[in-house]
Design brief:
The chain is of the alpha+beta class. It has one domain: Alpha-Beta Plaits (2-Layer Sandwich). Helix content is 32%, strand content 18%. A hairpin with a 3-residue loop joins strand 2 and strand 3. Helix 1 packs antiparallel against helix 2. It is elongated and about 40 Å long.
Amino acid sequence: MLVPHFHKKDLPLFATFRTEAGLELLPAARDKVLARLLEEHGNRYVLFAAVVMGDHAHVVLQASHAERGWPFDVGSILTSLKEGSALEVRKCLGGNLRVWQDERSRWSCGRRNFWTASANSCGRIQCGRG
């Protein structure tokens, strides 16, 4: 099931990237993904939190504003993160494998109950009221 994409500009975004079925990221590959996430922190986005697990990664980020004042496009940021990190994982693991599932990123817009909504949308643990 695809989760609807919700995003309001100038609010933090929670996204999950899942690996292709059966692909387990080794520690060295996880380090490459995390390094890629940190690479553009402070340029196109502010990264508040990131965790890279064996079969998925979570990020909480907020798009920065370009020189003309418009925020960078969140879709292009997420696409760039997935493509760039996939390239690094392929270098680490070898081969031309697909790393991330297509359009299975789960987004939740920032709001008062941001953490609860994010946890619920991922089907993970229930968080207390925030």
